[in-house]
From TrEMBL, chain A:
Pfam families on file: Rpn13_ADRM1_Pru, RPN13_C
Location(s) in or outside the cell: Cytoplasm; Nucleus
Name of the protein in its database record: Adhesion regulating molecule
Region (Disordered): 148-174
One Gene Ontology term, aspect cellular component: cytoplasm
TrEMBL record, chain B:
Name this protein carries in UniProt: Ubiquitin carboxyl-terminal hydrolase
Domain UCH catalytic: from-to ranges: 4-216
Gene Ontology CC annotation, any one: nucleus
Reaction equation(s) it catalyzes: Thiol-dependent hydrolysis of ester, thioester, amide, peptide and isopeptide bonds formed by the C-terminal Gly of ubiquitin (a 76-residue protein attached to proteins as an intracellular targeting signal)
CDD domains to which the protein is assigned, alphabetical: Peptidase_C12_UCH37_BAP1
Taxon lineage: Eukaryota, Fungi, Fungi incertae sedis, Chytridiomycota, Chytridiomycota incertae sedis
Domain of life the protein comes from: Eukaryota
Protein's organism: Anaeromyces robustus
Coiled-coil annotated spans: 219-266
Active-site residues annotated for this sequence: 81, 155
Biased composition (Basic residues): 309-319
GO molecular function: cysteine-type deubiquitinase activity; deNEDDylase activity
GO BP of this protein: cytoplasm protein quality control by the ubiquitin-proteasome system; protein deneddylation; protein deubiquitination
Cellular localisation: Nucleus
Length: 299, 331
């Protein structure tokens, strides 16, 4: 079975708490050298685990290469003083892991502010749902007023800087009253929490083993075992416990939540009208159930 | 033009098979869990050690004179460090039968400087193909993403006795680090404090080290012992005055048989795990889910998993809140 390669080139739909253009740097011997690719650092609270994540993605391929979970006060983002360039480091307290970045924003004057914002976000603890929503609203409001300020300044200056050409130009301007109104509307929206399922909880020996007493079930599974596996139910149970299989189902869980749901459903001929309100994995599993039910009705 | 190199898992089974597929015979890689004299003694003969650690700057001086009489290559290819560390051992041990491909590679690169040797590794199709065949089968790109961030910091180096000196081969350095004179008999006791010192430099919280021994596959030796003891038993059986010796010899034979069986089990385990690493699991996953759906087991499993997700989320939130309280009280 072949799968579409570009499963992860799905468009980002949510607004990030903070994002700015920055490239990575890599170590070569004792030197740290810039990776010349155009990149983006962004921070977000993951909807899956509600933890703060620090991401770096390649802007040309849109592929996320780094995804780090950061606990409050565990990491610090700071300028590398030894370098004259716009070089920044993300250091962790609990480990010796260090990541270097170089700023790619057209102007250097916001560097310090961005650096401070990164640390503010890392250290800001979201302890319950309500504050999540409030903070999110505050961020959205800030973003809106920023874009308002920005568009106003741009209109005032009327300049055409080369560096800002790829910036998204806001199309709407908001008055102060409108902003207040938006803020009130946002404050009344509750973001629903999804409790998505996890394939690792489902494809366990405890759930699967009782079915392996049925010879037909085993026969359906044998062709999909690795080469040279003994063809008995024990072999299937061993597979379910193996780190390689568990790694694979976790990778599928992750892929489903990262935009692979649509392409996979199409690939498998599943009903794509199933609601995703309970999460991508639940939607995928329910679609599999529905297909089975339909087949049984027909026969 | 050299193609890309994938990250591979640091595992004795992977390394054993990788070395075999490069064309080298009679090598077994074993993981070392403790550095006690007894554990190291049991592994002998050991050709070299591979050490995996979280990379940190290290200022140990290098021995530039030694590079003329050994194989030392600078790492010029990203993700190749596992294979590079393995080659550092294989190509510096004259007693290892390298096989046609590596023999040719060694001959072709013998006059190159460390940088060019590193480039030559990157451009060798045979070595790259074997290395890349150990990429975990992954129809979903997420794995590569995770591996990238890890691979930036983890690094493999090797320790191997070369021309009477204990050498540390690290492709990120200009040359090998010479840890002093050693012999075939004592080099393992000399390398022990070197590795212990290295580990001690890290905080106690750092536990991500991995040490593996590239050893001579003991099977040949076992078979030789087996042949000898069988002949001895045959002789003793014809001599009625040697009953006790005969019984002793039979016990020895059982010991050797046990060792051969344990060795077979280990190789089987390596083979099963490697087959699993290279397997595409997606069709099995879908078939399993279909079977659960057909038997009415899927819906209850979904509900149970959702409940677990909810509980995990609550637990994490509590941890976060605690972390915050602790952090603010300590600052």
């Amino acid at each position: 079975m072949s799968l579409p390669i570009n499963l992860f080139n799905t468009q980002q739909t949510s607004r990030h708490l903070l994002e700015f253009r920055a490239g990575k740097m890599f170590r070569e011997g004792n030197l740290v050298k810039p990776d010349t690719r155009k990149g983006l650092i962004y921070l977000n609270q993951s909807p899956e685990d509600s933890l703060m994540h620090f991401y770096w993605k390649d802007r040309s391929t849109n592929k996320v290469e780094d995804d780090l979970i950061i606990f409050p006060f565990e990491a610090e983002f700071s300028k590398v003083k030894q370098s004259n360039g716009r070089v920044y480091i993300l250091k962790f307290q609990s480990s010796s892991q260090k990541l270097f970045f170089w700023m790619q924003e057209p102007k250097a004057d916001k560097d310090e502010e961005l650096c401070k914002k990164v640390n503010d976000i890392i250290n800001n603890v979201h302890s319950d749902d309500k504050s999540d929503v409030m903070d999110y609203n505050q961020e959205l409001l800030n973003a809106l007023s920023e874009s308002y300020q920005q568009s106003k300044e741009e209109a005032d200056n009327n300049d055409n800087e080369a560096g800002s050409s790829d910036k998204k130009k806001p199309t709407t301007q908001f008055s102060k009253d409108q902003l207040k109104e938006i803020s009130e509307i946002l404050a009344n929206i509750q973001v629903p929490e999804t409790n998505d399922a996890n394939l690792q909880d489902i494809l366990t020996p405890e759930i699967v083993s009782p079915l392996l007493k049925d010879r037909e079930v085993c026969n359906a599974l044998f062709p999909h075992l690795p080469d040279n596996s003994p063809l008995d139910s024990q072999s299937i149970e061993d597979v379910l416990r193996s780190p390689q299989f568990i790694h694979s189902i976790n990778s599928l869980t992750y892929a489903l939540r990262s935009g692979a749901l649509g392409p996979l459903m199409a690939e498998l001929g599943l009903d794509s009208s199933i609601s995703t309100s309970d999460g991508a994995v639940v939607a995928f599993l329910r679609a599999i159930q529905k297909k089975q039910d339909d087949t049984m009705d027909e026969s | 033009m050299s193609g890309s190199w994938t990250t591979i898992e640091s595992d004795p089974g992977v390394f054993t098979q990788l070395i075999k597929e490069m064309g080298v015979e009679g090598i077994l890689v074993e993981e070392i869990y403790d550095l006690s004299e007894e554990s190291l003694e049991m592994l002998k003969p050991v050709y070299g050690l591979i050490f995996l650690f979280n990379w940190e700057k290290n200022e140990a001086p290098v021995d530039m004179e030694a590079i003329n009489n050994m194989f030392f290559a600078k790492q010029k290819v990203q993700n190749a460090c596992a294979t590079q560390a393995i080659l550092g051992i294989l190509l510096n041990r004259k007693e290892i039968k390298l096989g046609d491909e590596l023999e040719k590679f060694k001959e072709q690169t013998k006059d190159l400087d460390p940088t060019m040797k590193g480039i030559a590794i990157g451009e060798n199709d045979h070595i790259r193909k074997v290395h890349n065949s150990f990429k975990t089968q992954e129809p979903f790109e997420s794995d590569e993403r995770i591996a990238t961030s890890k691979d930036d910091v983890f690094h493999f180096i090797s320790y191997v006795p070369v021309n009477g000196s204990l050498m540390e081969i690290d492709g990120l350095k200009e040359g090998p680090v010479n840890h002093g004179e050693c012999t075939e008999e004592n080099w393992l006791s000399k390398v022990k404090p070197v590795i212990e010192k290295r580990i001690a430099q890290y905080q106690n919280s750092e536990i991500r080290f991995n040490l593996m021994a590239v050893t001579k596959d003991p099977l040949e030796e076992y078979q030789k012992e087996m042949k000898e003891i069988s002949q001895k038993i045959h002789t003793l059986e014809n001599d009625e005055s040697k009953v006790i010796e005969l019984e002793e010899a039979k016990l020895q034979k059982q010991d050797i048989l046990d060792k051969i069986h344990a060795h077979e089990d280990k190789l089987n385990r390596y083979a099963v795990e490697n087959a699993r690493r290279r397997h595409n699991w997606f069709p099995l996953i879908i078939e399993l889910l279909n079977i659960l759906a057909k038997n009415g087991k899927l819906e209850p499993a979904i509900a149970a998993s959702q409940e677990k997700t909810k509980k995990r989320r609550e637990a994490k939130r509590k941890n976060l809140a605690n972390a915050n309280t602790n952090a603010s009280s300590s600052s």
